TrEMBL record:
<keyword id="KW-0808">Transferase</keyword>
<feature type="domain" description="Methyltransferase type 11">
    <location>
        <begin position="53"/>
        <end position="140"/>
    </location>
</feature>
<dbReference type="InterPro" id="IPR029063">
    <property type="entry name" value="SAM-dependent_MTases_sf"/>
</dbReference>
<dbReference type="InterPro" id="IPR013216">
    <property type="entry name" value="Methyltransf_11"/>
</dbReference>
<protein>
    <submittedName>
        <fullName>Methyltransferase domain-containing protein</fullName>
    </submittedName>
</protein>
<dbReference type="GO" id="GO:0032259">
    <property type="term" value="P:methylation"/>
</dbReference>
<dbReference type="InterPro" id="IPR052939">
    <property type="entry name" value="23S_rRNA_MeTrnsfrase_RlmA"/>
</dbReference>
<dbReference type="Pfam" id="PF08241">
    <property type="entry name" value="Methyltransf_11"/>
</dbReference>
<keyword id="KW-0489">Methyltransferase</keyword>
<dbReference type="GO" id="GO:0008757">
    <property type="term" value="F:S-adenosylmethionine-dependent methyltransferase activity"/>
</dbReference>
Length: 253
């Protein structure tokens, strides 16, 4: 009974989706990791910074992996359940969590930070980042790349050709340069995702709300049923995520 369509839908619909921890998916879905080890590199940079800002920190899980933080360490987040979770996780570590709508302006003084970071920001405001970086300061982030998980999007939404160019690293580096930043390095990776049951899909679409905007089980019930039958017949649903690691620097005065 545990693998019936209705029971799987219920499992995905009832799972806690707060924060940015995906451990509920263990055994149900899997995604390759980029080869560069973002969390490890982030921790190293934090250990050498004097004032840091992590933008769109989610529930603070990735930032909290660092062993040490600079004397001034701040994180922003817009979604209130994540703000609460990040506060519980990061405040004991000396990181101040600021509720911020992820729209300009960032609520910080000019040249306030020598390190600005982000993992999978939904929006990137390059002019704001350049403004709050000190001369010689660094922006270091892992971004979602172009056409990421489009097999999933298009399964539910149909073809999305106009959106495939979005988040292209060439466009982002050009925007960073236009804001006055120097590009130090860009790395890209394409990664395999396997989704083993429809419960995982419901969980993901409830958690990553911009993948299929307005998703509800009721609205997409028929398509979820199709997905369940497809997985039962052919095995895991396969998609591919794209990521790029970007390092940019504000020129020294």
């Amino acid at each position: 009974m545990a693998n019936t369509f209705d029971s799987l839908i219920e499992a995905g619909a009832c799972a806690d989706v707060s924060g940015w921890d995906f451990s509920w998916l263990e055994g149900r879905a899997a995604e390759e990791r980029p080869p560069w080890g973002y969390a490890r590199q982030l921790a190293d940079r934090l250990s050498r910074a004097t004032a840091s800002l992590d933008i769109q920190t989610g529930g603070g899980e990735v930032l909290a992996e660092a062993k040490t933080f600079p004397t001034t360490a701040v994180a922003t987040e817009s979604w209130l359940p994540n703000v609460a979770k990040a506060t519980r996780l990061l405040h004991p570590r000396g990181v101040v969590v600021v509720a911020d709508p992820d729209e300009p302006p960032l609520p910080f003084a000019d040249e306030a930070f020598d390190l600005v970071t982000s993992r999978h920001p939904a929006t990137i405001w390059w002019e704001e980042i350049a403004q709050i970086l000190r001369p010689g300061g660094t922006y270091f982030a892992q971004h979602v790349g172009p056409a990421s998980v489009f097999e999933l999007f298009e399964f539910f939404l149909g073809p999305q050709p106009a959106a495939r160019r979005g988040r292209h690293p060439d466009d982002e580096t050009a925007a960073a340069q236009a804001a006055g930043l120097e590009i130090v390095d860009v790395k890209t990776s394409r990664l395999r995702i396997e989704i083993h049951d429809v419960a995982s899909m419901v969980y993901l679409l409830r958690k990553v709300i911009w993948w299929v905007p307005g998703f509800t089980v009721e609205k997409y019930h028929d398509r979820l049923c199709d997905l369940h039958d497809l997985i039962q017949q052919d095995g895991p649903f396969i998609a591919h995520s794209t990521r790029h690691l970007i390092e940019a620097r504000r020129p020294a005065a």
